[in-house]
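Supplementary Methods, section 5.1.

A reviewer requested that the exact input to the structure prediction be made available. We therefore reproduce it here, unchanged from the version used in the analyses.
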Amino acid sequence: MLPVALFVFLIGAILRWRMDQDFIKEMGQALLDTKQKLEKDLKGLSRHDVRSKQGFDAEFPDYGDKEDENAAEVATFTDNLALEHTLEGTLEDVNAALSRIAKGTYGQCRYCGKEIDQRRLRARPESSSCVNCKKKKLGQA
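The structure derived from this sequence is encoded token-by-token as follows.
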């Protein structure tokens, strides 16, 4: 027989993590749509590179051989490289969220273990932390 405190804890845990299946399905579709868009955007400004961690590598543009064209190439490449890193980071977060859905842990804060508010997940479906833990992590708490 389970001690009452453990039983209450387990029931609370089950209820706490029991997220509405329609909501999870909705977030899963939003994540898949975002993933598709990110991959399309990445393919537009980079080339596929199996050696790269994320599989993409920003392409260096070729505008010509003149000095001003070379400067424009460097500026464009720098912008594309920064954008590529941002898109890859977001894609990594999206893939991690899809993995959490598959594992049944989607919506659970990775720091405190509490349920992430659905409003936060609607705003940023790839979120892996609750607002309080994110604020603490950023030093805003």
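DSSP finds five helices and two strands in the chain. These observations are discussed further in the main text.
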